[in-house]
Amino acid sequence: MDVPLSHTGHSQARDVAGRLISLFPHSTPGIFSSDLQRARQTAQPLMEALSLRGTVPEPVLLQELREINLGQWQGKTRDQLRQEREPDGTSLFERWLADPRNVIPRGGESMAQFSRRAWAGMNKVINDSAGLCGAVVFTHGGVISMILNRIFGRGLGNLVRYNFPNTGIAILQHRNNKLYYVDGDASK
Questions:
Q1: Contacts of 49 (CB under 8 A, 6+ apart)
Q2: 132 Cβ contact partners less than 8 Å away, ≥ 6 residues apart
Q3: What is the pTM of this model?
Q4: Could you give all domains of the chain from N- to C-terminal order, each with its CATH number?
């Protein structure tokens, strides 16, 4: 869902801006963001810090960097979803948690669709930031999980197996036409 940052989220965004600016002490990276407002708002403090150095281009907003579309599950808690029952008495949500590759939320996207979309967004970032000193991407935990799955050669079912904190940082490097995970805040 397209929800704004909370007060805590704004504070976290200011904190992560300080961490990110230290990664680019003498240069200005390209800025890319999911078009959802919480990602754009998280990017704002970094944009403000970079503007003190001079002109900063507007962030490139990419729909491909949006979080997974959970269809009819959007806006519901895990407890609410666990209580919803199919005619056969099972929980579609529990089945999805157990087998996210083969269970699709009603009105949502499959893991394969989500993975292709996230990877397409990452490829746009790579192509659009060629020749720059680097890029900072503001996206969502699920997108990061899909990218890490691809880098590590893991299956699509690992979306919910990563623990990536709000404003966590994943440092990736693109070289020799391949993307590598260098460092970050994700745990498995």
A1: 17, 18, 21
A2: 29, 30
A3: 0.92
A4: 7-69+109-184 (3.40.50.1240), 71-108 (no CATH)
